[in-house]
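no rush on this but wanted to send it before i forget. what follows is a protein written twice so to speak, once as letters and once as C-alpha cells for the fold. mainly i need to know what kind of three dimensional shape the backbone takes. thanks a lot i owe you, the record is right below.
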Amino acid sequence: MSDGEAQPALGRRRERQRGHRSSGPSDAPLPRLVNRWAPLEILDAEQVERIVDAAYRVLEEGGLEIRSARAREVYARYGGMVDEATQIVRLGRDVVEAHLAHAPERFVLRARDPARDLHVGGNVVNFGPVAGAPHITDLEKGRRYGDIAAFRDIIKVVHRLGIVHWQGGVVVEPVDLPVPTRHLDMYLAHIECSDVVWAARGVGAPQASDAIAMSAIEHGMSVEELAERPTLLTVTNVNSPRRVDEEILDGIMIMAAHGQCVVITPFTLMGAMAPVTLAGSLVQQTAEALAIIALCQMVRRGAPCVMGGFTSNVDMRTGSPAFGTPEFVHATLATAQIGRRLRLPVRASAVNASPTVDAQATYETAFSLHACIMSHSHLINHAAGWLEGGLSASMEKIIVDAEMLRGWAEILKPVSFNDDDLGVEAIKAVAAGGHFFGSPHTLARYETAFYRPLLSDWSSFENWRDAGGRSATERALALWKKARDEWTPPPLDPAIREALHAYVARRAAEITGA
C-alpha cells in the first residue's frame, strides 16, 4: 500500500478514537493558577534602577496635580510638599519609600464561595473580564450601547464558563440606567449572577461607599469586619500625565480607608499621554502609580494595593490607541520587573485594537496575554471579551478568549514524569512500525490525556464543510448563547438577597430624592 493509500485509513482510525473520548470540553471553573517558570525579563538590574530613580525624581521635582483638597491635606500631613495655588503635590523619595514599606506584597480577597478566593501576589496568575466598554456587540444584534441586560449576560457567560478569577466592575456600561444610581444595579448584578470577588466602580465616593456596604451585606459582615477581611477591588486610573481628578481620589481614599484593594493604573499611551519612548513612559507610569499607592498607605497602613500597567503606543498617523503591539509587550514585561523591584503586585491587560472578532483581535490578544503571563503579572484585566481598544465588549470574543485562557491554564499545569509516564514498557510492547491506538498504555488514558478545546474545530476539511463551514467566530455565537442559557444562579441566602434589594431601593431613593 502506498503512503497515499495508507493516510485515509489512519485518518479513519483517528476519527474512531476521537469518538471514544470524553463527551466534551471541561467547563469547570479554572483553578488557582501558579506560574512555575522563571519570569521573562527584558531589563537588566541597572535599567530597572534607573527607571525607579527617575520616577522618584519626577515625584520630587515635578509632582502630581491632586485635585482633591482632602487628598492634598493627607499628603501634607505625611510630609508631602503641597502648592495649593497649583494643586501640585511633590513627594520626597524618603516619604514614598516609607509608606510603600507598608503595602503588602501579597494578599487574599475573599469571595462568597471560599474556593474562589482571589490570591494576589507571588506566582499566582488571575484572569478578569472586559471592563469599561461603552458598547456591547455580537453577531446577531451588532454593535450598540450597553445596557443592564448585556451587563448581566456577560457576567452569566463568564461565570458559567468558569474562566475568570474575579468579575470586572463595569463589564459594559449600562446606559439604559440613570447615571447617579446605575452602580447599584451593577453591584446587584455582580452578586446575583456570580459568587467570585467583584470590582467596585473606580470613580466617585458614593460608588465606593455603596460597594463596601453591599459587599458587607453579601458576606454577612459589618463594614468594620470587612476591613479586616477584604472582599473588593477597584481598578482606577490616573488622568495621565500627572493629574488625578477629585472623584477618582474620593473613591480611592474610601476604598483604602476600609481596607479594600486599590488597583491604580496610569493611562500612559506613548506619544500621547506619556513620552514617546518606552523608558520615559515607564518612568511616568511608575511615578504616578507610586504617588497614589503612597496615598493609600497614608490613609490606612497595610491597605492592599496593586501597581497597574497600561502603557502602550498610539498610531502616530491617527492618534488612535494601539494594543497587543511589540511596544505593549515590552511595557508589560518591564512593568512586572519594576513591580518585583518595588515588592508590589502588578496588574496587566490582555488587549487588542481590532474593530471585529477576527485574526487581528486574536493575535494581538495572544501577544498581550503571553506577555502578561510570562512577566508574572498577578491580575490580568480584560482577559475575556475586550474588543476595539476597549470601546466594545464582544460576546463572541469572550468565547475566543475562553479558549486561550483554558489553553494557558492547561499549559501552566505541572507535567507528570513518573516511571509510568516515561512509557518504556509501552514502547517495548508495540511492534516496530506499529501504533499506540490500541496500547493498554493509551487506553488507560485516552479520555483525559489531552486538552479538549471549547471552540476549536479539529475535524477534517470535508467534515467541517459538511457541518456548515462555520468560522471560529461564527461557532462562538452558539457557544456564548448556550453558556448564557445554561447559567444557574449561584447560592445566595434569601435573607441576604432581600437585604440587598432593600439597600438598593433605599439608596436609589436617597440619591434621586424620590
In short: The longest helix spans residues 278-299. Confidence is low (pLDDT under 50) at residues 1-23. The chain has one domain: 27-414+451-514. The first strand starts at residue 33 and ends at 34.
